[in-house]
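For the sake of transparency, this paper describes our internal protein records without simplification. Because each token names a local backbone shape, the row as a whole describes the fold. One such record is reproduced below, unchanged from the form in which we store it.
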Amino acid sequence: MLLLSAASLVVAANLLSILVAGLRIRVGRPAAREYGPVAVIRPIAGREEHDPETLESSFGHGDADVYLCVANEDDGGAALAQKVAARHGRGHLLVGDDQISANPKLRNLAKGWRAARRASYVIMADSNVLLPPDFADQMIARWAPDVGLVCSPPLGARPETFAAELECAFLNTYQARWQFVVDALGRGFAMGKVMLWDRALLDSWGGVEALAAEVCEDAAATRLVRRSGLRVRLVAAPFPQLLGHRTLRQVLERQTRWAILRRRTFPVPFAAELASTVVVPVLLILSSGWGTPVLIAGATASWYAAEMLLAWSKGWHCSWRMVPAMALRDLLIPWIYCVAWVRRDFAWRGSEMRA
């Protein structure tokens, strides 16, 4: 009975986390507020299928200066970036690779940070994120005197393959859900997909170069903000990352890379991740000697039904393929978890790196 009780507690904790995330995530327009000039910096490395749409979304905020950054003129996304920037009077294409870090994205961002000198707020956004028209309003609405950084987790959208559905299962009702739960508890952490900085504040900490303290800029940002006695906060609702076509290999490589970096930078929270899948209560039920198909089916059905309800209620991607994608995700997570403890090397945008 003890094992059955433990299984019930794990299922209850999962359902509670979905309830907390559902209450925390609020879809809608933020209240209007006054704020200073905004700049948007987008690092580009190569060309993805939705780049024309996502790069155009950079100009949704009426007077923001937009800096589209590539490491060199031969980059596959440089021509598109030049075309998009030329259509807008406040769009700029910047070329260069500042050797301030082993992180290729941070090296690409550095020149944009220096160029955005007149901005009060600077938004760093990956090129594959679709920024909503009021993205600056949504992010600045979360700013407060005790806040040092505002972020948006990526929300998987428009999957065209089952592997892309699998990525949605990782990003949305699993990773984003838990990130919003942690934010609701006042322990928010950075996600490098979209970050809003107070320009003067980050400059007082050493500028963009301060983000080179860790191999990933979001881990460095989290430590920097917390050391200063401030908090990382999330937007009211996450911004979409357009997935399109994905392969299983791409999804596994990305999730393994992120797991290695989480294990390296925040090992204690990472150690608890293994208990966050339906595999744990199923194994507890089987080990109890009461492992009837009815109990296992009930635990699994409640687990995935709650995730589907969260996705449906927030208007996120929701299809019948998400259920097998969630099941495959939960089977893969223990394997990814173990790999993260033994591996340190990974590839990122063609760069070989070590955590």
Q: What stands out?
A: The first strand starts at residue 38 and ends at 43.
